[in-house]
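Supplementary Text 2. Reproducibility record for the structural model of the 168-residue chain.

All settings were left at their defaults, and a single model was retained for analysis rather than an ensemble. We include the record here because the model underlies the residue-level annotations in Supplementary Table 4.
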Amino acid sequence: MSRIQFVRRALLFCITTLPFAMGVVHGHTYKAASLKVDHPYATPTPAGEQVSTVYFRAFDNVGKTADELIGARVDIAERVEIRRSVVVDGVAEDRVVKEVSLPSGKGPSFRHDAKNGYHLLLVNLNAPLKNGDRFPLWLTFRHAGEMKVMVWVQTPRGAQAPQHDHKH
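Retained model, structure tokens:
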């Protein structure tokens, strides 16, 4: 192999592996200041459904100062609502909240299977979401500012299909 061929192959290797070395294959973890967001994911939408839910594997504050999630936005829906699921008289209900406190340490649950957990509701989607789709989401924090994450559309583990059997 000539020196030129070797350099070309080395450059091609670097170009194709660099995105993975920068965190793409490390669970889709994003950081802004002391906040760490791991694996944002949204549920696919059944035919005719115009809402979807965004969850996170983990939402932690690794710093010493508390912060708050105060908003979110996407280009694929009219608006994003921050919601908390609560059980009232045995029935799960979603309640809109203005902010989510993020104290130092392990953060609140944003998982699809959490009781009394949080999630983001995408309202009036421009188009249905299908397994494998991806889209950007901007999270707004009181102190850390804005963080852009990439959301993967997937059916959550242990779920047969997207579930919207609770009150919105």
